[in-house]
Specification:
This protein has a single domain, classed as Alpha-Beta Plaits (2-Layer Sandwich), CATH 3.30.70. Helices cover about 35% and strands about 30% of the residues. The protein is built from four helices and four strands, in the order βααββααβ. The protein has helices at about 15-20, 20-25, 55-60, 65-75, and strands at about 1-10, 30-35, 45-50, 80-85. The two termini are about 15 Å apart.
Length: about 90
């Protein structure tokens, strides 16, 4: 299991934080996440993600289900940045 930091921007931080979509889409593939927000109040958010299979994660992120989940949560896909643990 590898730990990753994932940053991106969203339309509405509060909606994103309350959304159950992350658990709905990541849970079945074994990914556990902890959400974070920018304390300065921007629309930047982040996740600490425990990803057991990076290939499966990358493959999932190309699916219609991932695109729909991002739309539901107001994620700006062009802002996604995934950092690998050092």
């Amino acid at each position: 299991m590898a730990t990753h930091l994932i940053f991106h921007e969203v339309d509405d931080v509060e909606r994103w934080l309350r959304s159950p979509k992350r658990e709905e889409v990541f849970g079945p593939i074994g990914i556990k996440v902890r959400p974070f927000r920018d304390p300065q109040g921007s629309n930047r958010v982040g996740l600490i993600a425990e990803i057991p299979d990076m290939g499966a994660f990358q493959e999932f992120m190309q699916t219609d289900a991932a695109a729909e989940a991002m739309r539901h949560d107001g994620v700006h896909p062009d802002t996604i940045l995934v950092l690998d643990e050092g």
